[in-house]
Design goal:
With 211 residues, this protein is mainly β. The chain has a single domain, classed as Porin, CATH 2.40.160.20. Helices cover 9% and strands 65% of the residues. It contains 1 helix and 15 strands. The two termini are 37 Å apart.
Length: 211
């Protein structure tokens, strides 16, 4: 009987621990700063990529252990397509969306200031939203298309969380999104070859609410 009572107490304690588990949600504003990839062509060279632009990130997180949490993120960014060669450039309107999950390792939650590192992955959706034309500048290097491309994405990040109140925190973060280049949206011209890796450095400032 005593063993059963102890088991019940242990289960109750475990259930209480689950109920006490901390959750957090919030949003942040920032921008994407993307690299370009080289374009190799028979007669000349160029660069292809996406223009820097503002964006928004929303997240929902859960404490897993005392210093480990998991966060689901959604982000939406202005991301116009761009080709450049010999001082000339051509652009095409576009947006990008990301959905990813990170594991977050952070310093002691009892501290008002917490530093953290994050890593995970998900998907990035590139959309060309401009108006297609019969003639596009720099079309010898590639074609802008009003379509979309979904790419697997890796993510690494660092950040700082500062407690403003018992539940509200200021968050400063820097993430690096890594994907393959979306050649369905910016399509290489015949005889050209594009670099393959696209990086998007995303600094954000936001607020998180814990409960």
């Amino acid at each position: 009987m005593r063993t059963i009572a102890k088991s019940i107490l242990l289960l109750a304690a475990a259930a209480a621990g689950c109920l006490a588990q901390q959750w957090e949600f919030g949003g942040a504003g920032g921008g994407g700063f993307l690299n370009t990839v080289s374009v190799s062509a028979p007669l000349a060279g160029a660069t292809a990529g996406f223009q820097n632009g503002p964006g928004f990130d929303a997240f929902f997180g859960q404490t897993i252990y005392s210093r480990l949490s998991g966060e689901l993120h959604y982000g939406l960014y202005d991301s116009d397509l761009k080709l450049s060669s010999a001082g000339s450039s051509a652009t095409f309107s576009g947006v990008a969306q990301v959905v990813y999950y990170d594991l977050v390792l952070h310093t002691n939650r009892a501290s008002r200031t917490q530093f953290f590192v994050a890593g995970g992955g998900g998907m990035k959706l590139f959309d060309g939203t401009g108006r297609e034309q019969a003639y596009q500048p720099l079309s010898q290097f590639g074609y802008f298309t009003k379509t979309h491309s979904i790419k697997p994405m890796g993510d690494v990040g660092v950040g700082l969380r500062y407690a403003l109140t018992a539940r509200l925190s200021l968050r400063l973060e820097l993430h690096d999104y890594l994907t393959g280049f979306p050649t369905q949206v910016l399509t290489p011209a015949p005889g050209t070859h594009y670099g393959s890796i696209l990086q998007d450095f995303v600094p954000t400032v936001g607020l998180g609410y814990q409960y």
